Each structure stands twice: as C-alpha cells, then as structure tokens.
C-alpha cells in the first residue's frame, strides 16, 4: 500500500447520508478479480444517466472538484453489504481520505486495510465543511501524523485514530506486511519449537 500522511486537496462535498456500498460500487461491476479499475464505476448510478451520460447535477461531475483526494459526507457512510470493492473504487478514483460523522464498522476497517484514511468528525464540524465546500472549492490539509485537518482560515480540527491503524497507514503496511515486521521473532519461535 502507498503510505499516507499529508493530504492537501480541494474536498468533494457529497452532501448525503447513509451512502451504502451498493451506491458506492453497484453489484453489476463486481465481476473483476483484480483490485484496480473500479474507480470508473464509483457512484455510477448517481454519476450517469441510463444512456451513460454524466449527470450535471452530481458533485463528482463538477469540474471544480476534479482531482480531489478528500471526500466529505454525512453520517453512516459505507453502510450496507461488506463488499471490499467499495474502498477499492474510492481509492482507484483518487480519494485518499473520507470524512464523515460515522461509518459502518466493516467499511471503516476495509478503508484502513486498503490505504484510505476514514476520519470521524462531529456532525456540526462535517456540516461546516460541507457548507463551505458547496459554496466554493474549499482546500483542506489533512495530517495523519498530527491528527489534524487545517482549513485556509487557520481553523484546525482534530480527529482520533487507533494507534494500530495510524502506524499501518503511515508506513503503507497491510496486515501481511505488519507480520513481516516480526519475522525475526517468528523465525526464532519456529526454530525453538521445531
């Protein structure tokens, strides 16, 4: 995985609650066996009409947010089925950070395991970010090391993250790579118990 620490980007304000994994990546696009190539299907039925033409009123089709690496949404993001394809699609599209008041547990953990930083903020802080982002493109700076979100006016918002996940994201480790960190201990144990 690619390490994540500092992400400075225009945020994409997805002003929706209860965004479920079928909306993130619809079931008809789950036939791929690799983890890449899902980004073009992210929010597909919200982004495109029945003829495959982009819907002008959907935020991801707004050119002001092109290249954004941070998405901000309302509560219960990632609810629904436990498909790991949802974070794959988010990451493949280019988002590295998701900010919301709450997440479905499995989705939250799947983000961490796939190199996406899901940040929980209080509803009023998310509301403030959404309002600013809808008004005009709003660039924010996320620091995982400092556990902060800094806005252009100097406002600093703090977030919590489990130290285990923080270390994994900062180093770009997945759970297999984390196991290799203890390779010498594992080898010594195996030799002792051979």
TrEMBL record:
The keyword Transcription does not apply. InterPro entries: 3-IsopropMal_deHydase_ssu, Aconitase/3IPM_dehydase_swvl, AconitaseA/IPMdHydase_ssu_swvl, IPMI_Swivel, LeuD. It catalyses: (2R,3S)-3-isopropylmalate = (2S)-2-isopropylmalate. The keyword Lyase applies. It comes from the Bacteria. GO terms for biological process: L-leucine biosynthetic process. One of its GO terms (cellular component) is 3-isopropylmalate dehydratase complex. Its EC number is 4.2.1.33. Gene3D superfamilies: Aconitase, domain 4. NCBIfam families: leuD, PRK01641.1. Belongs to the LeuD family. LeuD type 1 subfamily. Catalyzes the isomerization between 2-isopropylmalate and 3-isopropylmalate, via the formation of 2-isopropylmaleate. PANTHER family: 3-ISOPROPYLMALATE DEHYDRATASE SMALL SUBUNIT, 3-ISOPROPYLMALATE DEHYDRATASE SMALL SUBUNIT 2-RELATED-RELATED. This is 3-isopropylmalate dehydratase small subunit. It comes from Edaphobacillus lindanitolerans.
């Amino acid at each position: 995985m690619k390490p994540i620490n500092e992400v400075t980007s225009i945020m994409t304000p997805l002003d929706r609650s209860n965004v479920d994994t079928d909306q993130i990546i619809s079931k008809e696009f789950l036939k791929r066996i690799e983890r890449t190539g899902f980004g073009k299907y992210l929010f597909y039925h919200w982004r495109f009409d029945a003829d495959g033409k982009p819907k002008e009123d959907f935020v991801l089709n707004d050119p002001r947010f092109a290249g954004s690496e941070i998405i901000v949404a309302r509560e219960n993001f990632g609810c629904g089925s436990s498909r790991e394809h949802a974070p794959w699609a988010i990451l493949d599209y280019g988002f590295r950070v998701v900010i919301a008041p709450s997440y479905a547990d499995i989705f939250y953990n799947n983000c961490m395991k796939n190199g996406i930083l899901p940040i929980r903020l209080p509803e009023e802080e998310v509301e403030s970010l959404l309002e600013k982002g809808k008004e005009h493109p709003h660039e924010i700076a996320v620091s995982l090391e400092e556990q902060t979100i800094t806005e252009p006016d100097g406002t600093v918002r703090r977030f919590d993250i489990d130290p285990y996940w923080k270390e994994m994201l900062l180093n770009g480790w997945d759970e297999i790579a984390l196991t290799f960190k203890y390779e010498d201990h594992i080898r010594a144990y195996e030799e002792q118990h051979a």
